[in-house]
Amino acid sequence: MDCFRTRPSLTRFARTLLHFCLAMLSPPAVAAELVVHPSVPEHDLTVNMARLVFTMRLLRWPNGKRVKVFVLPDQNPLHREFTKEALDLYPRQLRRVWDRNLYAGSGPVPVEVATVQDMARLVSETPGAIGYLPNDFDIEAVRVIHVK
């Protein structure tokens, strides 16, 4: 009966090998750039300020114009990459804050758009708007800002 038991080290090795194989098969991450409407006075944001904007705690830009946040759905790879890299948060953490604002009525929630084309169009048309687009996206009517 003992000959059918698996050794803990072999199980750990198999698990590590499985994770490595899954990582190799997963699609490459898409890098995202933070974009704003040209009327936004900021040229770069700190990580803390970007978090305040995307958690809907900073509601006005320094010039007094209202902040309008646009995001992609939680399952979108660009959304996941943006939240992890630029904000150093997991998408579920943002969702928890947004759901609390929505259901408790304690604050606004961002506008969810379906595609990056919608994101680019809405950010370019809405004064005070902020969103994110892929690095390779043709950016015409929006301004890229950096998170430091």
What labels would you give this structure?
D-Maltodextrin-Binding Protein, domain 2, alpha/beta, globular, six-stranded mixed β-sheet, 16% strand, 148 residues
Give your account of this protein's structure.
With about 150 residues, the chain is of the alpha/beta class. The protein has a single domain (about 30-145), classed as Periplasmic binding protein-like II (D-Maltodextrin-Binding Protein, domain 2, 3-Layer(aba) Sandwich), CATH 3.40.190. The protein is built from 5 helices and 6 strands. The chain has helices spanning about 10-25, 45-55, 75-85, 90-105, 115-125, and strands at about 30-35, 45, 70, 110, 130-135, 145. The protein has a 6-stranded mixed β-sheet. The longest helix is centred in the N-terminal third of the chain and has 18 residues, at about 10-25. It is globular. About 25% of the residues are buried. The model has no long low-confidence stretch (mean pLDDT about 85).
Largest beta sheet, briefly?
6 strands, mixed
Judged by helices, strands and strand pairing, the structural class is alpha/beta
Number of helices, where a helix is a run of at least 4 consecutive DSSP H or I residues: 5
Report the C-alpha radius of gyration, rounded. 20 Å
Instruction: Tell me roughly what share of residues is in helical segments.
Output: 25-40%
Highest-level CATH class: Alpha Beta
How much of the sequence lies in strands comes to 15-25%
- CATH topology, by name, is D-Maltodextrin-Binding Protein, domain 2
- Total separate domains: 1
Q: Going across the biggest sheet, name each strand in turn.
A: 2-6-1-5-3-4
The total beta strand count reads: 6
CATH superfamily: Periplasmic binding protein-like II
Mean pLDDT: 84
The 3D shape can be described as: globular
